[in-house]
# Entry
Amino acid sequence: MGDNEIHVISHEFVPGEKTQIESGPFKGISAVISRVMPAKERVCILLDLLGGKIEAEVKESVLAAPKPRS
# Structure
């Protein structure tokens, strides 16, 4: 990048991205982002529980921060 170029780093959740629940009763469980709902500051996640996939809607704040993207 040159001195006059702008480089934006996004810290947003992306469908298909793996994450981990960091608080609440499911703390420590891995999940996959299935849908992002920015107006509600919530995301839908897929959990592998009891041998099946379960979709749940959670606040973004209970998940591990998304990885920075360029």
